[in-house]
Amino acid sequence: MLAQNGIPTPEDIAEVLPPAERLAKGPVAIAECFQNIPCDPCYHSCKQGAIKEFTDINQRPQIDFDKCNGCGSCMSRCPGLAIFVVDATFSEQEALVKIPYEFLPIPQVGETVTAINRAGQAVGEARVVKVQNSKVQDRTAVVWLAVAKDLMMEVRHFKTKEVR
């Protein structure tokens, strides 16, 4: 239970996931923000208008999945690192998961990392496809991971194999 251990329940997660039809169309953002807190930078950063306007600064973000193109501009603006982009169309066997990352060392393209789920458990391996880390992102890199398709909705973090 989220309030006791910080891990969202399957019901919590189901509330924020895009429908299967939308996942089949390409990259889309998922806001796994499960608490009502005063925060709205994601709304202001979305140039597509995909994050619905907040009626109360404390409400959780709501994504209009039909407007979202998966650009990820909201990811590096989220102070809680709670927004991810998934792309089920990346390849036949793999999906792409874009993860906000604020640790060092930043992984290198081509590196194999350990894929971690929401509970902090290793669930497999992932390959680093791309790393975005510009000044506009304010020191929040976005790491693109290729993962097995069945892990697309599980992988929400990673750890590097070794410290450089």
How much helical structure, as a percent, in the residues?
10-25%
Strand-pairing-aware structural class: alpha+beta
Number of strands: 7
Report the order of strands and helices: HHHEHEEEEEE
| Average predicted confidence as pLDDT | 93
- Detail the poorly predicted runs: none
Oligomer: single chain
Count of alpha/pi helices: 4
The gyration radius over C-alpha positions equals 15 Å
Note the beta-strand portion: 25-35%
Largest sheet: 7 strands, antiparallel
How many discrete structural domains? 1
What is the 3D form?
globular
Main β-sheet, spatial strand arrangement: 1-2-3-6-5-4-7
What can you see in these coordinates?
Keywords: Iron, Iron-sulfur, Metal-binding. Pfam families: Fer4 (PF00037). This is 4Fe-4S ferredoxin iron-sulfur binding domain-containing protein. β5 (122-132) and β6 (141-148) form a beta hairpin. The chain is α+β, with helices and mostly antiparallel strands and 164 residues long. It has one domain (2-159). It is globular and about 45 Å long. It has a seven-stranded antiparallel beta sheet, with no helix packed on it. The protein is 12% helix and 27% strand.
Give the structure's gist in a few sentences.
The protein is of the alpha+beta class. The protein is built from 4 helices and 7 strands. It has a 7-stranded antiparallel sheet, with no helix packed on it.
